[in-house]
Amino acid sequence: MTLVNNSKNWTIIQITDTHLMNHDGLEFVHMNPAETFHAVMHDIQIRYPHADAIIHTGDLAQVAAPETYQYYLSFISQFKIPHYQIPGNHDNSDIFPFYKNRNEAHAIHFGEWTIILLNSAVKDQVYGFIEPKQLDQLDQLLTQYKNQHIIITCHHHPFEMHSHWLDHHILKNTSHLTDILAKHQNTKLVLFGHVHQDSWNQWNGISFYSTPSTCVQFKPKSENFALDEEAPGYRVLHLKENGEFETKIHRISHKVVKINAHISGY
User: HSE-up of 255 (CA within 13 Å, CB side)?
Assistant: First the structure.
């Protein structure tokens, strides 16, 4: 359990799918992920210098080497904002900088709000799956903090994005997750990455949000792999003590994204 502060309102930043390399000059799908990550973090620093936390929802690395993770930690620590990260399918869970044990759900408290970090990454697979142990822990945490407003984070998308190629790589046991959520009344929203685009779904009164990547974007509702011309971005959440929240997407405006239409995968 981590208690962050006791103020009345909180600002939480979600970044996702940075796809960092182990050298700054390397490209990911013909973009430089370090360059756009730096630009996103600069925008966060300008707009939200007193943010309460940054949550990274996976695919931190494209080259999942120790130096990639060390670079990320060294860079983001400069911003003096508490930061937490969960792995994606491109990450190496054996060396990933988990905040706590990789096999455990972890709760972070912001006054009347609690964010629960889940690991949906499966070794050597692109799709997602949340292990039964974590789901049991989630059930326990939702009971233990029944009077808290809950945010759940994972990497993979729980519901279809209506992109044929992308939905092959969905969270495979969404029904197990929703069975747990249906037993409780305190979950407000679920945040995830993986899909490189902004989306919103609602199920059982719970809002499910995906967030743009800090680098390349995927074209929505595409039958086959396709890149979008939207700029890199991030999500901000403004949480209120009474359980209300506001959220919006910011995109970096000064970066011109050049799309290579001949790329067929990543």
Answer: 26
Q: Does the global pTM surpass 0.90?
A: yes
Q: Which two tokens stand for residue 69?
A: 């993770």
Cα distances (angstroms) measured from residue 234 to each of 154, 176, 259? 16, 28, 20
96 touches 117 (CB < 8 A): no
Q: Chain-centre distance of CA 179, in angstroms?
A: 22
C-alpha 41/C-alpha 77 separation (Å) is 11
CB atoms within 10 A of CB 20: 27
pLDDT in tens, the chain (266 residues): 455 555 579 999 999 999 999 877 667 777 789 999 999 999 999 999 999 999 999 999 999 999 999 999 999 999 999 999 999 999 999 999 998 877 889 999 999 999 999 999 999 999 999 999 999 999 999 999 999 999 999 999 999 999 999 999 999 999 999 999 999 999 999 999 999 999 999 999 999 999 999 999 999 999 999 999 899 999 999 999 999 999 999 999 855 555 554 444 55
Which among 223, 218, 226 is positioned nearest to 163, based on CA atoms?
223
